[in-house]
Design goal:
The radius of gyration is 23 Å and the shape is flat. It is built from eleven helices and five strands; from the N terminus they run αββααβαβααβααααα. It has a five-stranded antiparallel sheet with strand order 1-2-3-5-4. It starts with a helix and ends with a helix. By secondary structure, it is α+β, with helices and mostly antiparallel strands. It has two domains: 170 residues, Gyrase A, domain 2; 32 residues, no CATH class. Helix content is 49%, strand content 13%. A hairpin with a 3-residue loop joins β1 and β2. The relative contact order is 0.15. Bound molecules: flavin-adenine dinucleotide (FAD). Flavin-adenine dinucleotide binds next to α7.
């Protein structure tokens, strides 16, 4: 198992995967693989445990039982480039360790995010609808142009202040959230799966989801078995509360569904779409 896994992960080491218009994700390094999870877990269970003797079954069992510590034995380090508004959300995942480009010591590059036309959408009540109904192409082009104008103006003012000799840490303060930043980010596999569960969800912001989708593909190369378990057990899992479980039991027994109003709507949406509501 270890031999083929290492080969797949080694193929993508240092390779930048493009995200959004100017961003990327690069796997810098990793420690461990599916095999490391299994080795760590066997310290708990011992080699002879029959029901968990196969590696894949053991990983699946650990995931189902939320026996998370063996997954913490795998660690991945990424080099990421993303707009500051995505990075603001990213750093909320406190178990990650990071080191970011310094706007105090470096002059920030003129690199701003401009959403693609199909990703420019009106405000909606339910963010699950994001990008399903983008604005008309002509309007989207005008919005792109307005965003670029604002970014250019902000950067010109920044450059002006730098050239006048102002401290970089002050000159930068009017730069917008669309400015790109870069950082190294290290996370263990258990917390990375938690991150992916939250940030692959349709409730997460579209730009964040685009990064999370690529992280998922990279993690799959490092730990294909654990990633398959994660997708099946954690990612596609939908939790039902007590009232909903009761409703499910009644419906399965051929009785009427006791839920009504918004509770019924949430329950039916969960059942039909598989999305946590
Ligand atoms: C769709 C979406 C919308 C969001 N909207 C907002 C928002 O509007 N405003 C906002 O502020 N945040 C928002 N967040 C961020 C969210 O509240 C969490 O902070 C973020 O998702 C990180 O999750 P986490 O705490 O599980 O991860 P981590 O910080 O990586 O933590 C992992 C685990 O360690 C525990 N842990 C880590 N550090 C500590 C600590 N210091 N004390 C106690 N336990 C700790 C956590 O409880 C968790 O179990 C949003 C997140 C999502 C996915």
């Amino acid at each position: 198992m270890a031999h083929c896994i290492v080969k797949e992960a080694e193929k993508i080491l240092d390779k930048p995967f493009k995200v959004l218009d100017k961003g990327f994700i690069r796997l810098v390094d990793y420690l461990g693989s599916d095999e490391r999870i299994v080795q760590a877990a066997r310290v708990s269970y011992g080699k002879g445990t029959d029901s968990v003797s196969k590696d894949e079954a053991l990983i699946d069992y650990l995931m189902r039982q939320q026996h998370t510590s063996p997954f913490e034995q795998v660690v991945l380090t990424f080099h990421l480039k993303m707009p500051i508004f995505v990075a603001r959300q990213w750093v909320r995942h406190r178990m990650g360790r990071m080191n970011e480009l310094s706007g105090r010591f470096s002059v920030m590059q003129e690199e701003f995010y401009v959403p693609a036309k199909e990703d420019i959408d009106p405000q909606k009540k339910d963010r699950l609808e994001r990008a399903l109904e983008p604005v008309e192409p002509a309007e989207a082009a005008k919005i792109q142009s307005d965003l670029k104008k604002g970014q250019k103006k902000a950067y010109e003012s920044y450059k002006d202040l730098i050239e006048k000799g102002l401290a970089r840490e002050i000159a930068r303060i009017n730069l917008p959230l669309s400015l790109y930043t870069e950082f190294y980010w290290q996370m263990d596999l258990n917390n990375l799966f938690r991150f992916l569960k939250l940030r692959l969800d349709p409730h997460a912001q579209l730009e964040m989801r685009k990064y999370a989708e690529i992280i998922l593909e990279i993690v799959r190369k490092v730990c294909p078995v654990a990633t398959a378990s994660f997708e099946n057990i954690m990612l596609k899992q939908v939790a039902f509360n007590g009232e909903e479980i009761d409703a499910l039991r009644r419906v399965l027994a051929g009785e009427a569904n006791p839920l009504t109003g918004p509770k019924l709507d949430r329950f039916l949406t969960k059942v039909k779409t598989g999305h946590q509501m």
